[in-house]
Amino acid sequence: MTTEELSQDQVITTLRDSPFVMLTTALPDGTLLSHPMTPQQVTDDADIWFFVGLDGDQANALRGNPHVNIAISEAGSWLSVAGRVEFVEDRAKIEELWDGEVDAYFKGGTDDPNLGLLFVVSDSAQYWGMPGGKMSALARIAKAKLTGDRPQGVSGTTGL
User: Fold this and answer.
1) Res 137: pLDDT
2) In order of start, what are the domains of the chain with their CATH numbers?
3) What confidence score (pLDDT) does residue 150 get?
4) Cα 3 from Cα 153, distance rounded (Å)
């Protein structure tokens, strides 16, 4: 495995290309809690907007500990972003980001009292992956299984 510098642009592109991520936080007893989330917007600073239900275990955990990790995994590539969440009360931002994709979770639409906004301020990111994209990565993994060799990849870390 080779080490390369991970750029902020690479992090942003990967986040923007991911329809789903796993958002992990720690409960007061140290237990890690992860939920699948849909990024609503990724800023040019690699910060991320999410819709969140204000009532429930996830929101309570995030209120108790704002430090989070966002993980993305796709055949042969992994991205891990560390950051801090902020709950934001901004009806105009909710309207701007609303696309109807989360109607099943928020029956009242943009007026649902349980609908909240999370803003994740990204601090750092780590990446591990194989060059050549998804199909190339799948082929390398399959070849490695047949030959017993380890697939070669790259890794990188950056502060955001």
Assistant:
1) 47
2) 2-159 (2.30.110.10)
3) 59
4) 9
Q: Which residue has the tokens 């796993």?
A: 22
Residue 72: name the closest of 131, 121, 122, 23 by CA.
23
| Model pTM above 0.90 | no
Give the Cβ contact number of residue 129 at 10 Å.
22
Residues 6 or more apart in contact with residue 97 via CB below 8 angstroms: 40, 41, 49, 51, 117
**Quick one: tokens of 147?**
């030959």
CA dist 110 and 90 (Å) reads 11
Q: How far apart are CA 24 and CA 62, in angstroms?
A: 9
> What are the φ/ψ torsions at residue 11 (nearest 5 degrees)?
-65, -45
What would the pLDDT profile of 107-159 be if each residue is shown by its tens digit? 999 999 999 999 999 999 998 875 555 544 444 455 556 666 655 555 666 67
Contacts of 46 (CB under 8 A, 6+ apart): 8, 11, 12, 15, 81, 122, 125, 160
| Cα-based distances in Å from 6 to 12, 57, 79, 153 | 11, 33, 11, 13
